TrEMBL record:
It holds the Pfam family LysM. InterPro entries: LysM, LysM1-like, LysM_dom_sf. One of its GO terms (molecular function) is chitin binding. This is LysM domain-containing protein. Keywords: Chitin-binding, Membrane, Transmembrane, Transmembrane helix, Virulence. The keyword Phosphoprotein does not apply. Residues 68-112 form the LysM domain.
Amino acid sequence: DTQELQFINKLELITKYNFVYSIIMVKARNYSINYLILVLSFLLILTSYQGLAVFFKGTNIVNPDCTRIYAAQAGDTCESLIEFFDLNAQVFNDINPNLNCDNIFVGEWLCTNGTIST
């Protein structure tokens, strides 16, 4: 009789524990889903040009529309390309906004003619 009562008490305790654990896990999953949605939304905002403008106020983000491209060759520099294609340095920089003039690599696609929209 005592052993049955102890077994029933343990069973009730385990059942209560499992119930509480289940509630905690459901809440944890909801928090995880909400956190995931928040992180994905933030990343979506950061990856859009307009979203970046929100974080970098006063920064003018340009969208170059290239009509002619060039694959960089060994020895190319920004200065040599500006001279070769008879470009204005500012225009060249504007139509190649992510170009690192100190590290042009062979085969890098460069815009040599195009328009800029903001």
